[in-house]
Write a structure and sequence with these properties.
The chain is mainly alpha-helical and 287 residues long. It has helices at residues 3-14, 34-50, 60-82, 121-124, 127-142, 145-156, 167-173, 175-186, 203-219, 226-237, 245-249, 254-273, and strands spanning 19-20, 27-28, 95-99, 106-109, 113-117. Strand 1 (19-20) and strand 2 form a beta hairpin.
């Protein structure tokens, strides 16, 4: 890495990128704007939906997926309103689609564009299990993990000159390399569009998404204790012959489950506060 680029990035990190992750307070380097990330994500999302089979919203399963996405997005908005940051999610345009695929996977792009694959429903098993996955994925978007990875990549690969920042500038400097970085970060690799969203997050981003996800699912009225059951089921799948796509980017091990158990008292406080929220009667329904 050139010293000038590093110096420029450091300066920017003090000015523009002076930001920290909600709830955990971890400081992160962000050299791209929400609006640039959201518009590029929207393009990738549309391409994905155009080339995959979206399940009709009139089906029970797709309706459930949309309901969970909606409740978690509203819970997240409530969280920011209650913590004095009501505009934090401005610009997010939440959308959740169920896509027909045998892959065990789900993801949320920057700006709130989500996909759940039918292949993950046998593992989530019920609406609360689905809320574990969607709470986690929404949290990657809310914590701007994709933007963070893009920022780190743009600096590491010299896509910005000293003092520069912004996705548009990187794109103007080195369009091919910037697009390749985006494709790598978000798993956009034609023709394997089924892997969109397969971002190999670092361990700290994974833990953070678990943490935020537990709080948001709790505020949405879903029992966070199901997270332990869900990750236990994912861990059992890893013993099979073919590792599910979701598991390859979300290692489920005893450490992850132990960390989630440590967060449970905090999550349960949020769950108890929202226990007056009407809960669904289909929570135990098997799919
Ligand atoms: Zn994750």
């Amino acid at each position: 890495m050139k010293r000038g680029i590093l110096y420029g990035a450091m300066l920017l990190s003090l000015v523009w990128a002076c930001t920290s992750v909600p709830l955990t307070g971890r400081r992160q380097l962000l050299l791209v704007s929400d609006s640039d990330m959201h518009s590029m994500a929207l393009t990738s999302y549309k391409q994905f939906l155009d080339t995959n089979k979206v399940v009709s919203a009139t089906t029970t399963q797709a309706a459930m997926v949309k309901r969970v996405g909606d409740r978690i997005a509203k819970a997240a908005q409530r969280y920011f309103e209650q913590t004095g940051n009501p505009n934090y999610l401005d610009g997010y345009q939440w959308q959740t689609e169920l896509v027909e695929s045998k892959e065990v996977n789900a993801w949320c792009m920057p700006g709130g564009k989500m996909v759940v694959y039918t292949g993950i429903l046998p593992v989530t098993q019920n609406e609360t299990g689905l809320a574990v996955v969607m709470g986690h994925e929404v949290s990657h978007a809310i914590a701007k993990h994709g933007a963070e990875r893009m920022s780190q990549g743009m600096v590491a690969e010299g896509l910005l000159a000293a003092g520069q920042a912004g996705l548009g500038i990187a794109m103007a400097n080195k369009p091919g390399a910037t697009q390749t970085l985006w494709n790598t970060v978000f798993g956009v690799a034609a023709p394997a569009a089924a892997q969109l969203g397969l971002l190999a997050h670092g361990r700290n981003q994974e833990s953070e998404a678990d943490h935020l996800g537990l709080i948001f699912m709790s505020m949405a009225g879903y029992d966070p204790k199901e997270a332990v059951n869900f990750w236990g089921r994912m861990a059992a799948l890893s013993k099979g012959s073919k590792t599910p796509i979701f598991l390859s980017s979300h290692p489920s091990d005893t450490q992850r489950i132990a960390d989630i158990q440590k967060l449970m008292p905090e999550a349960l406080k949020y769950y108890q506060v929202t226990s007056t929220t009407p809960t669904t009667t289909s929570g135990s329904k098997k799919y």
